[in-house]
Amino acid sequence: MGKATRENSSPAPFAAEKLRTAGLRPTRQRMELAAHLFCGDDRHVTAESLHDEVARAGIKVSLATVYNTLHQFTAAGLLRQVVVDAVRGYFDTNTGDHQHFFLEDEGTLIDIPGEAIQVAGVPAAPAGMAVDRVDVVVRVKRT
Hints:
By secondary structure, the chain is an alpha+beta fold. The chain has a single domain, classed as Arc Repressor Mutant, subunit A. Helices cover 29% and strands 18% of the residues. It is built from four helices and six strands; from the N terminus they run H-H-E-H-H-E-E-E-E-E. The chain has a three-stranded antiparallel sheet with strand order 1-3-2. Helix 1 crosses helix 2 (28-37) and helix 3 (47-56) packs across helix 4 (63-75).
């Protein structure tokens, strides 16, 4: 399943089904972005990096549309947002149980398997609420 390119202008065939299964209408732009995001291994992207990637592939889409689509995919459960600080956020195609190392100098996330970390002392949620998940970002630097 290849990525959408100028030579092959249709998004990967799995994109429409993935969007429909998540309850999203498979618009052209959603399908093109989904084809790039979900082709291959799990990965971490920013809106800017995905926008650059699709632009290099000859796909015309505004940065605002990329942001909106990433947030729609996150709300639909297709992506997980990882906020590393007040100005940097990543979108993760791996929505399973895991945490992250963050290489601060490089702006890169690396997955930590869920069973490799234990979080203790999580307080009880306020009345009428339940803890959904706990996100851990371990900041590292190369030695």
